[in-house]
Design brief:
Mean pLDDT: 92
CATH architecture of the largest domain: 3-Layer(aba) Sandwich
Helix content: 40-55%
Radius of gyration: 20 Å
Largest sheet: 7 strands, mixed
Distance between the termini: 54 Å
Number of helices: 9
């Protein structure tokens, strides 16, 4: 049976569902209807039902959703039922901030190493990880079963470093470099542009001020 293709818009909403359901679970909420979830998330109830129907529905009409079950199922869809080994390339402020964010490990994303080509940073320890020179990276990937790389380096180096990562078996790249990476269909890339997000905020802020 051919697997159903899920739109990126739906996939983009899954982490938000997961976050809200986690908060509800922590508050002891056992069941929630699509209408109640709609009010919390500012997403229409019909959109919520359509999104969940892509994966089987999860609820019963007139009975709502079991919060714990839905939280666990969305976690599985997001791949959070297994551990992922990550390395960080670039140990500047952003790279170190990501390494220090403990919530990633709670979700099963385990940082195994951090690398930088700045000799002044060699040997510095970031949350238990010693910053290593770039020449150690290829052997480290193979020895530590690394499957995801995080790029927090200048765009001038991002493309060449990404090519080395792919050559050494990395299957997913979380890219914070100021460029869009295209490394082939076999590798999943999430390009994150912080400036784009800030400019979007600026646009919406200015539009609101014009109308007020």
């Amino acid at each position: 049976m051919e697997e159903k293709e899920i739109s990126q818009a739906v996939i983009g909403r899954l982490p938000r569902y997961f976050r809200y359901l986690g908060e509800l679970r922590d508050k002891g909420v056992e069941r929630i209807s699509s209408q109640e979830l709609s009010k919390l998330m500012k997403v229409t109830a019909s959109q919520i039902r359509q999104d969940f129907n892509n994966f089987g529905g999860f609820g019963q009409q007139g009975y709502g959703y079991n919060v714990n079950y839905l939280y666990d199922e969305i976690g599985k869809i997001l791949g959070l039922d297994k551990a992922h080994h990550l390395i960080i390339i670039g140990s500047g402020n952003l790279g170190q901030a990501i390494a220090n964010y403990m919530n990633f490990e709670r979700r099963g994303f385990i940082f195994k190493g951090i690398f930088d080509n700045n000799p002044a940073l060699k040997g510095k320890v970031v949350r238990g990880l010693e910053i290593q020179p770039m020449e150690n990276m290829e052997a480290f990937i193979k020895d530590n079963d690394v499957d995801i790389a995080v790029l927090t380096i200048p765009k001038t180096a991002a493309v060449s470093v990404a090519e080395v990562l792919v050559k050494n078996g990395i299957k997913a790249i979380w890219n914070f470099a100021h460029c869009d990476l295209n490394v082939g269909d076999d590798v999943v890339v999430e390009n994150v542009h912080l400036t784009d997000s800030l400019l979007k905020l600026s646009y919406n802020f200015n539009c609101k001020n014009k109308n007020s």
